[in-house]
Amino acid sequence: MSFIVLGFFTAMGAVIWRGATLIASGQMAAGQLFSFVIYSGFIAGNIAGMAGVYTRLQKAIGAAEKLLLLLDEPAEAVDEKYIHEPSNTLLGQIAFDQVAFEYPSRKENAVLRNVSFKVEPGQQVALVGPSGAGKSTIVSLC
Q1: How does DSSP classify residue 89?
Q2: Which conformational region is residue 26 in: left (phi greater than 0), alpha (psi within -120 to 50 degrees), or beta?
Q3: Which of 16, 54, 81, 103 is surrounded by the most beta carbons within 10 Å?
């Protein structure tokens, strides 16, 4: 984008200089030069806009490629003979009611404050939030 702007202003400077010499020699009217510069500015503005569209298009193509790579990822094989321990099975609901938590080594920084939610049996829940919000801590506490 900066290359296009630099090129535009360099070209405009050259056109105005050449036009000024033609006006001084009587070969061109000042209105013609002014009209040419204005029209050139309109065209250059649209060309610069096309560069921005091309950049956004390239970003969208890159994001789509990443999504397609994720979709092409093979599924993990499930071992049908695996027997899980009964102590690892959650049968009922999970409820957090005004839970607060801080790590013993950092008591001044509370990781969780007044967290409340309920997960019913068979319900799928996603924990979403920024880094450091306590998602992993909540899962570890379950």
Answers
A1: -
A2: left
A3: 16
pLDDT of res. 64: 94
How many CB atoms within 10 Å of residue 48? Answer: 13
pLDDT at 1: 65
CB contact burial 102-130 (16+ within 10 A = b; e otherwise): eeeeeeeeebbeebeeeeeeeeeeeeeee
Round to whole Å and give the CA distance between 29 and 35.
10
116 backbone dihedrals φ, ψ, rounded to 5°: -135, 130
pLDDT single digits (tens) 80-123: 888 878 777 777 788 889 888 888 888 788 888 888 888 888 78
Residue type at position 19: G
For the chain, counts of helices (H) and of strands (E): 3, 2
